[in-house]
């Protein structure tokens, strides 16, 4: 039985991004507050301002206003974007090089600081340096079986550590000193400070796209064998039961108390509280699903959409109205920290 947990709302339509240029595709997205950045296959970054509007009937819509677009001067796609808002910098991966650009005018930093030789990268959301004017960046290097850690400042970068892995890494997430890695045949947890590693479970990266996602302090979500979404802590244990995904999940995101997954045809919503599938939304040609500060965004090659969560109190009332008292209680107790106290009492 389904729960209406999310509504799919269009944010950036095709014409706004590309006009009549059909060959332009969305490669990556980043969202930071109201700022939405889109990287394209023809080496452009587009900056939009997203305005959320709520009608008198409570309907949410988004109005995107294009601020500017910037050509990076290469014939390569922009493959990843990450915002470091404390530095007002956008980290841009294109042609195996991470460039620092200003978040507002998209101009490269005057010093020309960059990180070369990156296949993919991620930011450490639980940084160890304690410096508020620096972000910690972890890259999978073009060097075989190598991970590198960098400190990135407003106008310079500094390598901190180089770590070698038992097999070629293809995806990484970071929490503190812990790296959760998808290697060629398995997932592992690696402490880059001590060098101690721990095997999690086998996985064949040749057959499927691995998913490694930090979902909270010292906890990760992974695409496991048999279409399972598996949770793992830095100690290599699972404190939650897995969720049953389809075999070909492309991306996953967390919007407590739900895990959202994208495959070729659908967006599925599972509860972390009872592992049940709660909602299925048809969505064809999706290739990106990410969450940004609680905002879940999906994208096709041509458009960007936002999954807007319905208020938890409304979800609980809907469950009660359809006599699903147990589920309503599980949701109310599990989501207690997200519901205002007086509403929870009711």
Automatic annotation (TrEMBL):
Q: Name one GO cellular component term.
A: membrane
**One of this protein's GO BP terms?**
autophagy
Task: Respond yes or no to whether keyword Cytoplasm is given for this record.
Answer: yes
Q: Does the keyword Cell cycle apply?
A: no
Provide the protein's localization: Cytoplasm
Main localization (coarse): cytoplasm
Q: Which part of the chain is the CNH domain?
A: 23-296
Tell me the keywords, alphabetical order.
Answer: Cytoplasm, Protein transport, Transport
Gene of origin?
A: Tgfbrap1
Its recorded name reads: TGFA1 protein
């Amino acid at each position: 039985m389904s729960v209406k947990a999310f509504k799919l709302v269009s944010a950036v339509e095709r014409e706004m991004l590309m006009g009549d240029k059909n060959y332009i595709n969305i490669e990556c997205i980043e969202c930071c507050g109201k700022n939405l950045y889109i990287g394209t296959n023809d080496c452009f970054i587009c900056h939009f301002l997203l305005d959320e509007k709520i009608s008198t009937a409570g309907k949410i819509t988004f109005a995107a206003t294009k601020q500017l677009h910037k050509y990076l001067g290469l014939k390569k796609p922009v493959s990843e974007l990450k915002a470091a808002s404390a530095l007002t910098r956008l980290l841009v991966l294109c042609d195996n090089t991470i460039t620092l650009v200003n978040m507002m005018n998209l101009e490269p930093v005057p010093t020309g600081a960059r990180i070369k030789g990156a296949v993919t990268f991620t930011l450490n959301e639980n940084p160890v340096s304690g410096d508020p004017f620096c972000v910690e960046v972890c890259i999978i290097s073009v060097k075989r079986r190598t991970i590198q850690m960098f400190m990135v400042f407003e106008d310079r970068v500094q390598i901190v550590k180089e770590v070698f892995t038992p097999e070629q890494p293809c995806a990484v997430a970071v929490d503190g000193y812990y790296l959760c890695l998808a290697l060629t045949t398995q997932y592992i947890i690696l402490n880059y400070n001590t060098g101690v590693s721990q095997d999690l479970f086998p996985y064949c990266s040749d057959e499927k796209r691995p998913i490694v996602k930090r979902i909270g302090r010292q906890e990760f979500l992974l695409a496991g064998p048999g279409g399972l979404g598996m949770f793992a802590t830095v100690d290599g244990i699972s404190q939650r039961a897995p969720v049953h995904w389809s075999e070909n999940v492309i991306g996953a995101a967390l919007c407590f108390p739900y895990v959202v997954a994208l495959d070729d045809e659908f967006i599925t919503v599972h509860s972390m509280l009872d592992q049940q599938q709660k909602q299925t939304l048809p969505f064809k040609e999706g290739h990106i699903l990410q969450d940004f500060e609680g905002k879940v965004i999906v994208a096709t090659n041509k458009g960007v959409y936002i999954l807007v969560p319905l208020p938890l109190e409304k979800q609980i009332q809907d469950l009660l109205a359809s006599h699903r008292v147990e589920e309503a209680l599980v949701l109310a107790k599990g989501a207690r920290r997200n519901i205002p106290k007086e509403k929870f009492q009711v």
